[in-house]
Amino acid sequence: MTKMLGTRDVYGDVLIELGTGNKDIVVLDADLASSTRTAKFKKKFSDRFFNMGVSEQDMMGTAAGFASAGKIPFASTFAIFATGRAWEQVRQSICLPKMNVKIVATHGGITVGEDGASHHSTEDIALMRVLPNMTVIIPADGYEAGAAIKAAVKYRGPVFIRLSREKFPVLYPENCEFEIGKAKVHSIGEDATIISCGLMVHMSLEAAEELKKDGLNVGVINMSTIKPLDTDAVLNAARISGAIVTAEEHSIIGGLGGAVAEVLSENEPVPLKRVGINDKFGMSGSTVDLLKHYGLTKETVKEAVHHVIKMKGIRVRD
Amino acid sequence: MEADVEKLKKIARQIRIDILTMLVESGSGHTGGSLSATDILTVLYFYKMRYDPKNPKWEERDKFVLSKGHGAPALYAVLGRAGYFGLEHFHTLRKLGSILRGHPNSAVTPGVEVCTGSLGQGLSQANGLALAARLDNKPTRVYAVLGDGETDEGQVWEAAMSSAHYRIDNLCAILDNNGLQIDGTNKEVMNIEPVVEKWKSFGWHVIEINGHDIKAIVDALNEAEKIKGKPTMIIAHTVKGKGVSFMENKVEYHGVAPTRDEYERAMKELGAN
Asked: Which residues from chain A sit within 8 angstroms of residue B109, using beta carbons?
């Protein structure tokens, strides 16, 4: 059976590892420390943990102040509150002066589940991606999350890392490498390539495997850094495959699909289909039901692949 | 340390001249709120704060946050006069490529610690600066000047709670309480009273002064330094446009620069050469 691992669980452990080796690391949370797992850090390093209460805007500003004084602050809460509630604080206090703040937000996407639209985060990639100086990362499994968090500390500047409430199937080894801005290219397909992030990566890998039965050679790229986007990987896939599908647990507007569409349309216009939330707010429901309802499944990804390959044919005939 | 009040008054007059000179040349900017904060910034930079303009990143320095970032001309004037950059930069305010942007930007201006301008964000940043200094056992004290209209912003009160909760006593905030905001008086637009009681109830040590009385500012800042276990808020009652008679208490001068004629008249009043 596939090993499952929570990206947020890894976060708590990695924070302790980082905090042990680096006294400059401080952690802030907005009354969700047990959910985001920063409580683990608090237990070990209570003097460097600051619960800011239910005040995300104040938390982001305080984190900026810490960074200005040379600290490496991690600021954590749910993704929608980190990016939505505090967006303008992230913009002015953190991104404008390029403060060395690491925003690690959990409960990204709709797999927050039963809490519903107020707590879902289907706009966060778009909100963070549009900010100059911001780096945006969405790991595809627990170990990649750990490696990404460590890489974020080595990089000087603002970083947004989106984690999940859900446990993800493990795709990579525990000691995997992470390079910011470098896609993990599993394969490039002759017929199409799926570019995905987060939870959708393992579904894309399963979809590509099953599409072999239909005689299709489909590649998969884990685009865990949305910004800066690995445009070389996108364009290389477009040139070889001639058709691209994107898949993300986010609105199809402004996220990974939007980023890939921008690059393709300006450089290598090939058929593209974006799999994601189709400009809707999420309902309440179990994770499984929600993913199915909003079309975040390997079946939807497979349909999208068939669709873009068909579009390729139309283009050739024209 | 004894304060030389007469000398500070002279510096404040020069700072007002610098502010108006910057603004008349830029043709835009916030005149009223720069002049109301002038005496406070003068005492901070030329009496109270410890810093080294030749070594702007000196780790032991005191730190200043202009949360009401639109008062940038006042901040640039004191930073320039303190020696953080050459006075020739005064002529570049708000012009393309200048280190003196419309609102304070720590990425481009020596001596500016954080980015402000969008209101309500400075006190949170000041808390972060002060907490970091405390973690590192540094003598750094952090000062933040807030606008009265700015305290309409909810984040100010989130930060006010945090300062008290974490007993941040190396922090002193000063409220530039000039009573006016863009659309009118505070009382008309959004009443912030009872302001002293508000800050007290949020757990702050509150000192109320005339924000143009140099000696009173000196005494308040010295008192703040002695307060342990809680942050201090100095409610400084000020006059918007202070120092230029026809600008005083005029809401119209919130966001506009003086005309050339107004500038000449102001220079006469201030006794500029």
From this structure: none
